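Lecture notes, unit on binding sites. The following record was shown on slide 14. It pairs a sequence with flavin-adenine dinucleotide.
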Amino acid sequence: MATYDVIVIGAGPGGYVCAIRCAQLGLKVAVVEGRETLGGTCLNVGCIPSKALLNATHHLHEVHENFEKMGLMGAAPTVDWAKMQAYKQDVVNGNTKGIEFLFKKNKITWLKGWATIPAAGQVQVGDEVHSAKNIVIATGSEPASLPGVTVDETTIVTSTGALTLGKIPASMVVIGAGVIGLEMGSVYARLGTQVTVVEYLDAITPGMDAEVAKAFQKILTKQGFKFILGAAVQGVSVADGKATVTYKLRKDDSESVLEAETVLVATGRKPHTAGLGLEALGVEMLPRGQVKTDHFATNIKGLYAIGDAIVGPMLAHKAEDEGMALAEILAGKAGHVNYGVIPGVVYTTPEVASVGQTEEQLKEAGRAYKVGKFPFMGNARAKAVFQADGFVKILADKATDRILGAHIIGPGAGDLIHEVCVAMEFGASAQDLALTCHAHPTYSEAVREAALACGDGAIHA
Ligand code: FAD
């Protein structure tokens, strides 16, 4: 029986980052991973393959939409789907192999197989039982199911199946207008698929600042998306390789059907903790299936949990931050995650990014705030690249000017948001951002202008 300071179960962004930091801090670490490759959902079937396909199809979209405008003439490229899939897989392989390299570099043992926890302080993999002072559950999440819908990963797919479709479908119904549904929908819309999104709520991207969500929907509609909002899917049937989606409009209970070659079920994800033996151990769980934790500690001594398996946004960087913080706690340091400053990004074109509070949340909390907004239409760089749709919106405390949130829809939003994240970590005011010199011509100038708009006004608006 091998003994470790820490055994991490799951090699996703939460687990592998936790393991690397534990090793850097001098702890003896092993990671159990049942998948053939490291990196979890994110590297294998999540963030990374989806961004590869978004990248390839973004270029295709650019060719069709903007090349001629810039005097770039010639036949548009055709799509070799098998090659695009191979490119995506190469990107995945490069990243998963990279984690393997980091494990070797940091002397982390990879215990290959599926783990169970037969008793406190013990982890079983196959026939072997290993012991550890600390065990970390980093088992992530899996797609949530929908009553009346049976996923076959061919015609009715989750995001995992949508990443590896045998061919580009002529039509696709996406159930759920969340981030994953819209990103994958974008991939296929750019490849020529007629994409219809059916969403239960009356707006897309639930939880996003409403003004941004509205602008986002408008832009996606211009790109060819169809939206059916306020619609509850009743079921999906498949006959002759075609799917029929039945939905009811919530406003009048009227029932309609939609036909499509592929149906993507993107109604969220749920924590993946089954099969670990948590019930027998007496581990406290939350009603929605997450492991109950207090500063990552469960109710069992020496057993911790992080990432998608616990409460909070199901995001890779949230899992990573928790992994790092927990490693520091296990090494006797003060690990910390600031849940108030976790950015969220949608990697469509344009990108959408947010951090901190939305206007709706501030209103509900009764907080006095001011809004500084700046449209990308006033940003020279955005105009030069035909990406002037969208805006930056900064929310600041009315009395103190402290930044409370930022919401960006526009070019490079996923990168721009981080200057606001850093500002928020430092407790900055909107004026602090506004007084910081920003290089011209950059998209970041739009962030500065929005900060200026919180005070005496933007210059270029
Ligand atoms: P996971 O990454 O899910 O890893 C858990 C690992 O544990 C898995 O590899 C699993 O095989 C292993 N495991 C489970 N049980 C056991 C066991 N008993 N024994 C051994 N191993 C086990 N997030 C972002 O921040 N940005 C994005 O752009 C983004 N895009 C996404 C796109 C898609 C299509 C999807 C599906 C998700 C996306 N996410 C994105 C979410 C992100 O992937 C997750 O939030 C993140 O992977 C969670 O990390 P984790 O370490 O908690 O778990």
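Take-home: The chain has 14 helices and 22 strands.
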